[in-house]
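Worked example

This section walks through a single chain of length 789. The input is the sequence exactly as stored; nothing has been trimmed or padded.
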Amino acid sequence: MSQSKFIVRKVAVLGAGVMGAQIAAHLANANVEAILFDLPAKEGPKSGIALKAIDALKKQNPAPLASKGRADFITPANYDEHLHLLKDCDLVIEAIAERMDWKLGLYEKVAPHLGANTIFATNTSGLSINKLAEGCPASMRSRFCGIHFFNPPRYMHLVEIIPCVTSDALMLDQLEGFLATTLGKGVVRAKDTPNFVANRIGVYSMLAAIHNAEKFGIRFDIVDDLTGPRLGRPKSATFRTADVVGLDTFAHVVKTMQDTLPNDPWHALFQSPQWLQKLIDAGSLGAKTKVGIYKKEGKTKLVLDPASGQYVEANKKGDDAVKELMKIKDPGKRLLKLKESSNPEAQFLWACFRDVFHYIAVHLDTVADNARDVDLAIRWGFGWNEGPFETWQAAGWKQVAEWIKADIDAGKTIVNTPLPAWVFSRDGVHEPAGSYSASKNALVPRSKLDVYQRQLFPAQLVGEAAPVYGETVFENEGVRAWTTGDGVLVVSFLSKAHAIGPAVLEGINKSLDLAEAQFKGLVIWHPEEPFSVGADLSSMLPAFMAGDWVSIEKMLSDFQAMTMRLRYSQVPVVSATRGYVFGGGCEVCLHSDRVVAHLESYVGLVEVGVGLLPGAGGTKEFALRAAYEARGDVFAALKDRYMTIATANVAKSAEEAKELGFLRDSDVIVFNQYELLFVAKQQALALAESGYRAPLKVKGFPVAGRSGAASIKGQLTNMMEGGFISKHDYHIGALIADIITGGDVEAGTLVDEQWILDLERKGFLSLLKNEKTQERIAYMLQNNKPLRN
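Given that input, the structure is written out below as tokens.
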């Protein structure tokens, strides 16, 4: 389905609370000019409320802004002075408090000032879109809908679009395209039912977990140990999630369900437990007040005991026997073992699965258009690895349905409402042809909007056709090189966390041979993050244990040769990144012709954390780039780059990676992770079609020399004497200073790339032989966190 072009230049956000300000921040991240409105302040500048909110964005963690400078693209405004600015906005998003009367009053106020084609949307999390639309002036109703962002808007992939009966169909399609590509969101079209899709089911799952925890006598900290990553869900699990969301916010969503769903069979469950209400009354609202279900006293983490109302030490974990059951790979066997176990924790987990399956089956016809929308909404809005329908289908649809029916018949479920008949007539809800819609009694295929043609490999669901990543051209233990026949060779690493060891090096070199002989360009991309955690240190262990320094030096030399091949390849090389881009992975990007980075690419030369230094051209590349940037003073251009390496500074976004020098101005930032490969291929083809020629080798560039190194070492000495760094930190920092400034030469001396590479390799090996570095490497491999010694 083709959609006409829709350009959003300017957006107004009405309401400078937490959500409104963060929506404005993400618009600014995406190069969309944002105007943030709020009430006129009673004192000081009239736009003081919006000004304060914008200032707060710079201090929040996790950061709503991709870089602090993005705040400059948000204009503070107030309703007394600035309503005339609305006429130039392509989109207006209302994000004020969840009160129908306040919202309708605001709509009446702003309606006369909107442009003739301005889309007006509400970010309500649960109020009826149709009732809000009825309160709009008639002229606005075709351009009105719900756009429900999830908190925090920068990081949560889900946005629900909720049409009202009067919403213009083309407008909704255009809006979906904007949300998907410009803001990088996963869009689900929701029905206008209370709390829409994700919150309706996600909050029900939390209420069911709270109910079952009480029923089986499971402590809150044990519930969180069992219902987090062990279930493929976020670390915040159940009770920590409530703290993070805000207990008042969680209770508000529950109250919405209580007030608006009187006929839901589970209505009795839709109430805040007494202990929760007591916390809210006491102002203990969770993470934002630093006290909620959890709190800290000094370094001790405490958790609420609801029976006594007191806090106890949060030191309990799930039963080892139950955790072993959760490791069973076969989903059907895993559920069966939990169901059959007499252990209360296993019974609790089975009950949680069963009660969610029961709820989504009964409500699919009214809550969502199809099962895919339910699963993607829960994955993207609540951070589950698998949606609930996927889990059910993977475990054996019909068998699980019989187990649920047996529990309903035995009175074990929260309500005795039977499963709908359609459940027993199917083998699952997801098929290659589409996902089941209970309201239509048919399979619904994926959207055919133009924007989804850019998603070459969208999020996959259990039961859908497995993605075919092109035709394999070459494969070894480390990489698979493949093509879809468009002239681009794609290289995907096969190693754990895409670490770079000998097989990956060999695979990249072979892929470069093939690309230069048969293809227009080469793209390095993986179906899942991270891009790469860097060099595979464990692959060096056998040689390291044997003291075979010759073999280790050869591995390092091979790594350097590979990155230099990337730099001087006869075809354009594009690296497509998301997630961690660390160490050697960062060095691959530094030597690519172009990087196409998802906004959430976290880039850094982090070798100092294991007592090493960048050894595959990272230090060399920073020295070279500083020389290019220098206007007569190489050292001035080099200082910040040196500190970035010496402190293992990691960019917290792709934009910050540009500011720190990991990415260039010509590198491209993409907001939707599912569009990454499409854009990377387009970049490679554009470079090729524009007559790409490999860069000429650099014959010589100026370095800061021994005087530059001496200046850096002076600062390091001060830091060591002040107790900020250890002696080994000083040793590493001094070594990096010697390398990045070109070694024992005069300032301004011209050196070539190989000169710095040789210094890098020598420095890396000397550190590898150092006992303190060996302690750091061993600690990292064992504990997955750095040791400072």
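What to look for: The first helix runs from residue 18 to 29.
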